[in-house]
Specification:
With about 400 residues, the protein is of the alpha+beta class. It has helices at about 20-50, 55-60, 80-95, 95-115, 120-130, 245-275, 290-315, 325-345, 360-370, 375-390; strands at about 135-140, 155-160, 160-175, 180-185, 190-200, 205, 220-230, 280, 285. The chain starts with about 20 loop residues before the first helix and ends in a 6-residue tail after the last helix. The chain binds 3-thiaglutaryl-CoA and flavin-adenine dinucleotide.
């Protein structure tokens, strides 16, 4: 497949750049330039081949995409939450699978080690995770426990001088190549705890999941624990209960809320350009009212999501963002991006199903994004519970 020139220009209908600092813009533009140079030329082929290009890892570390908000003393970039959001937006503009890799490393591996870990764990793992010298994954979902992780079966027993871990996790991003896994499992008392499992421990395997039609450039797998001996110092000491993993999800869902806007922007930019160039019935299809309706609704929804996420970023910087607010933004952005991708696909006609344009790839990716980190309906129920005080989950 021939490498393409990436002429993406981001839509900014409400002049939201005015709300960004020079540092925000520098971080965003650096990430965008890196995506244009390193990702766009090979992403279609990577997806066709169902391969995560490992050469991206070093570059992701260099642009600060691993642990953007983790303090610099642990190797992070020490940035604010809006910077984190902008980074995720730019990466997902390239591909949701790329953003997934960075989300998992930052919010689901570095965040729990930083927030719930001991000082020794922070020093041992965070600097290497920040550069990508070490990669991690996050094991919460199990074959029979997806939306309801509290029912998990994976468990570990205290054997005196070590823990013995048994169970299985599935749908784990980065699992096939990760050096470490942050695993959520029940202890002898039935409490959910976080434990770091390193590749190479006897009885720990990470079989790859094949045959995905979505997130094909992201590597997904299982985590299988068959009497795995885990050193006691690998337990995350500072959290107990489901609030541990859910706390990590707050950060990852925030990143996805921004990221999905990137995918939508890419679809819109492509659709707008295509509509202005494609001639049917003697004039550009952009001149037909039905095409304008699609484009006008796309930019309206993108703009609304941009404003919502920016406000959420401000609240998060002030430590005032609630989990339910984050759920609303994740649900809104991903659903919006899926709708934009579907409309953009229509505008591209038959060309919209080919790898010549990024549309179908984004659309298929977003079918995972709308499910992982809490499904579309689970986030609706979180909002429902927040506004009514009544739990409709069970
Ligand atoms: P519930 O009884 O409501 O809560 C249990 C405890 O957790 C606390 N809590 C939270 N804490 C922090 N942040 C949140 N967002 C929290 N939500 C709840 C809660 O206060 C309570 O604390 P405590 O101290 O009283 O014990 O729990 P529940 O069992 O009824 O479940 C609630 C539900 C359904 C909302 C939750 O389990 C859920 O969000 N389910 C969706 C599962 C999910 O999102 N899985 C994601 C797996 S990771 C992933 O998909 C990575 S993809 C990565 C990529 O490639 O980008
Ligand atoms: P289920 O929970 O079985 O849900 C099936 C359907 O039932 C959904 O539509 C859901 O909304 C609905 N439903 C469930 N409960 C209710 C209810 N109470 N009321 C109404 N409707 C309900 N997990 C990790 O731990 N780590 C990862 O790195 C990770 N990466 C992933 C990567 C990919 C590509 C994918 C697809 C998934 C990944 N996941 C990961 C798992 C993901 O978080 C789960 O798929 C997700 O939480 C949903 O769980 P499930 O697939 O078991 O669906």
């Amino acid at each position: 497949m021939a490498a393409k020139t990436d002429n993406f220009q981001h839509p900014d209908y409400y002049l939201m750049d005015d709300m960004l600092t020079d540092e925000h813009k520098l971080i965003r533009d650096t990430a965008r330039a890196w995506v244009k140079k390193e990702v766009t030329p090979i992403i279609e082929q990577a997806c066709q081949d169902a391969k995560f290009p490992k050469q991206w890892i070093k570059g992701l570390g260099e642009i600060g995409a691993f642990g953007p908000y983790i303090p610099t003393e642990y190797g992070g970039a020490g940035l604010d939450q809006i910077s984190y959001g902008l980074l995720m937006q730019e990466l997902e503009r390239g591909d949701s699978g790329l953003r997934s890799t960075a989300s998992v490393q930052s919010s689901l591996v570095m965040y729990p080690i930083y927030t719930y870990g001991s000082e020794e764990q922070r020093k041992k793992y965070l600097p290497k995770l920040a550069t990508g010298e070490m990669m991690g994954c996050f094991g919460l979902t199990e074959p029979d426990h997806g939306s309801n992780p509290s029912g998990m079966l994976t468990n570990f027993k205290d054997m005196g001088d070590h823990y013995l871990l048994n169970g299985a996790k599935m749908w784990i991003s980065n699992a096939p190549f990760a050096d470490i896994a942050v695993v959520w499992a029940k202890d002898d008392a039935g409490d959910i705890r976080g434990i770091i499992v390193e590749r190479g421990y006897a009885g720990f395997t990470t079989p790859e999941t094949h045959g995905k039609w979505s997130l094909r450039a992201s590597s997904t797998g299982e985590l299988v624990f068959d009497n795995v001996k885990v050193p006691k110092e690998n337990l995350l000491p500072n959290v107990k209960g489901l609030k541990g993993p859910l706390g990590c999800l707050n950060s990852a869902r925030f990143g996805i809320a921004w990221g999905a806007i990137g995918a939508a922007m890419d679809c819109y930019d492509s659709a707008l350009n295509y509509a202005k160039e494609r001639i049917q019935f003697g004039k550009p299809i952009a001149g037909f009212q039905l095409t304008q309706k699609k484009l006008a609704e796309m930019i309206t929804e993108i703009t609304k999501a941009q404003l919502l996420c920016h406000r959420l970023g401000t609240l998060k910087n002030e430590h005032r963002a609630t989990p339910a607010q984050i759920s609303m933004a994740k649900r809104n952005s991903v659903n919006m991006a899926l709708e934009v991708a579907r409309e953009a696909r229509q505008i591209h006609g038959g060309m919209g199903i080919t790898g010549e344009y990024p549309i179908m790839r984004h659309m298929m990716n977003l079918e995972s994004v709308v499910t992982y980190e809490g499904t579309h309906d689970i986030h609706l129920l979180i909002t429902g519970m927040d506004i009514t005080g009544l739990n409709a989950f069970n």
